[in-house]
Amino acid sequence: MEPHWLVRPRTIRLLWIAFIAILAATVAAQFVVDMHPHFGVDGLFGFNAWYGFGTCALMIVGAKALGLLIKRPDTYYDAEEDGNGHG
Amino acid sequence: MDTANVFHPGLILIVGALVAAPLRGNLRQAATLLFPLFALFAVWQLPDGAAWHLRYLDYELAPLAADKLSRLFAAIFTLMAFGGALFALGQKNRVEVPAALLYAGSAVGVALAGDLVTVFVFWELMAIGSTLVVWSAGTPLAWRASVRYLAVHLFGGVLLMAGIAGHVADTGSVAFARMALDSPAHWLILAGFLVNAGAPPLSAWLPDAYPEASWSGTVFLSAFTTKTAVYVLLRGFPGTELLIWIGVFMIFYGIVYALLENDMRRILAYSIVNQVGFMVVGIGIGTEMALNGAAAHAFTHIIYKALLLMSAGAVLYRTGRRKCTDLGGLFQSMPLTAVCGIIGALSISSFPLTSGFISKSMVAQAAADQHLLAVWMLLAAASAGVFLHAGIKFPWFVFFQKDSGLRPAEPPKNMQAAMLFFSALCIGLGVYPDPLYAMLPFPVDYAPYTGAHVVAQLQLLLFSGLAFFVMLNFLKRTLTITLDVDWFYRIAGARLVAAVGGLISRTLESVSAALARRSGALHATLLRQHGPEGTLARTWPTGSMAIWVVVLLLAYLVLYYLY
Q1: Which of B231, B258, B270, B450 can pair with B389 through a Cys bridge, CB separation 3.0 to 4.6 Å?
Q2: DSSP characters over B483-548
Q3: Residue B427 has pLDDT above 50, yes or no
Q4: Which of B324, B458, B500 to mutate to test the interface with A (most CBs of A within 10 A)?
């Protein structure tokens, strides 16, 4: 069966191209829009672009690291609470 | 009781709950829809100031009082009750929707309370209504979660009660007005409020309990408890700087835990804590712009969060599945649900032309106006993080991701109607925010749609999206949960109780063994003295009685003679 048009590799490649074009456009828009920065640091070129990407990458890595410590199988509480005989 | 001639919108909902509970079929459905509409109408009729007065134990209570702030919250709570009831028309459980109306009515009651006693009464009613909503899902998991949920909220209620009692003792007044953190009583009141807001250290009650409710129950739950807490913080503690940092913690707690989560509705539950964090930061900043932003964000948040949970609820209703690892590819057979979910996801991410854009940005603007660079930077990172953990993650893993092979149909028409209604509100407020701005407590001097703001927000969000897809391997869903503070009362507490209980029962055993030995000996002595053959219980012959009487009389005679 033919997969849905939205999930065909061709469509996905086109979506990536369009996405990257839009990303470039939002940064390029800074040349025509006055960003009137408030603090200084937000006046750096493409501040919101690299800051958004960077902080998100940081949050993903941070969450992953925290997950190593406190992730448990999703049956954890069932087993523990049954083991304690509470219900 | 002296009352102006107005209805109490909260009591209308509570009466609606009692009327709807015994009804069945169409009558019941009509009641659950009409009472919220009537209540919404009544909100519009409220005059400014206290409409009802009541004397109770020497205190002047104002059980019904209104101003712009309380009217804003009462309006969104009743609107939410209507939307939720529309979504839940097909709910088979007979307790859930009446309980939700009781819950909504109590939330409205808090919003329209002019004094702290009334706040407390409705606060506790809210805990009962919401516990019933969780419990009515009818599963063992929901039962356990509802008990934990109730325990946390009763604890919060105790803090609040103690604080109110202290406040009344200090000031002699029960009026609900702005408070400063200058006495233990006010700290207790703040703590009681923060428990319901989902603030640390007890945030875990929210993602623990809400996702265990039914497909429609979670929709109701997302709206009232935390936003009522936002309302009372707005009225009681505006400009309390501590709240900025509590809010920042909530924001990043929500993001990190949601990133690790596999259950679609628990992802959205964590993001409630995250979004309430933005409001709490706004309350902490405390300028008119910030307070307007917090109030506006509570209003838009209720709508888009309910919309997100409706779309998740529709998926759960049709598939019975909650885990991202079991879902995926549903856009093919549930396109309308997917589109509505995406509209909710864009709104929570504050995409331009959605309701989140015109509300959340006021908080960031307030931080900039106050030159709070660190707070502003954290809020910007958090905005990107919201898109990451909820804006893309929820629709991607539920509706796209991989083909799970599931081809569920769209949900029934009433559920579609509720989703379309709330989607329209999300877009409508995003495109035309003026009616909402006119309802805010302070005059609004803010234009969300400037070129700079739109470009900055698009950069922030789209590059956050890039990070999501570039790092997708790091975000692969696994069959895991993440430990939280609730571990302490679910596991550590249970183990402690088991250990202490074991200790106590062992001690009791040895004590009772010792007692048994002692009492055995005691018993033998008693038997010897008082038993059938015992010295003191023997039947004595009459002759020995006579002898003893003679002895006594002789002794008496001797004593009499001697003295």
Answers
A1: B258
A2: --THHIIIIIHHHHHHHHHHHHHHHHHHHHHHHHHHHHHHHHHHHHHHSTTSTTTSPPPHHHHHHH
A3: yes
A4: B458
